[in-house]
Design goal:
The chain is 12% helix and 43% strand. It has six helices and 26 strands.
Length: 364
Amino acid sequence: MSKLPQDIVVDILTYLPVKSLVRFKCVCKPWQSLISDPRFVKLHLKQAIEGNNINRQRLLVAAEPLYSSVDFEAASDGDDINAVMELPYPSAASRTESFAFASIRGSCNGLVCIRNGGDVHDMFLWNPSTRESKKLPKPSSSVQNDGFLTGLGYDSTIDDYKLVIACLTTANGSRQIMAPEVFTLKTNSWRRIQGIHSGITLKGGAGVFWNGALHWLGKQETGADHDVDVIFSLDVAQEKFMGFVPLPNHFCTAVLSISGNCLCIFGKLHPDESYFEAWITSEYGVKTSWRRRYAIPFDRLYMDYFSTEMCLTKKGVLMDHHGSPGTLQLYDPVEDATKFLRVKNNSDPMYDSVVYTESLVSLR
């Protein structure tokens, strides 16, 4: 390797998984310096995102008594031994809190935000790939347990990560966004941002970061017999709530997620429908850019209101299974077959999951 030009060495290393790169830091001081360099960290992440490298995507499952990382490509290939990896308890989390209330509040570039225990203000950031974690200061807003939305995103204009949190209150039959705050990693502090937005009923929960913005599922009030299904977004750099991103169809039950560099939605179009549909788009705000990827019979995949995450793999769909705690379901449309993966769980159905990309991004 010493005889290869430096740029070729760097290019080769950007294709390697985080586990290998962490190990290679011990090879010599020059490699430790290279792999720790923020410029290399960005190149490594860029290769994963822009290269649409699904092999670097994982499903993080927060379930009592521990966290698990699921390599859904290994799972889809039938490699059950390497498909599920147990992760050590994050050092920033309090061991006195019960995992039964662990809630994932956002994911971006390999970083994950987790609410630890029943207190909505007790949150920490974590990189599951490097095991680095950071406890966050408490925001000033009086966010309630059952009425708030969050999202973790990256502001490329200032090279910083931001966590957004806001209250959801009901007024005149619709949920309004109140008292939003943003946490910036570099300043390690919270501050208020602009505000009230009405005329939309949000599902709430954790937003999905894509194309520089956070996205939540919701319904736009039109005054007609039926409200319109939309994706509501917030520009992370401008810190402003934006317009609506149109959906390809009306969904009665849906989950929003990321697959490679595409935004995807998975759900039922009608309550009495006999199958689920998975749609993806790579063009922002263009309704006609949505493409249906899969139509999956209802009896092949279990999905309900509590389903929190789904992943499109190279062979099918991976989804959590709240009807059977500690179980993930993988459907292969070519074989028309469903297989199940087990993660350690104490039979508590209230676990959470999120897709994340393996990265070297640091919290320092």
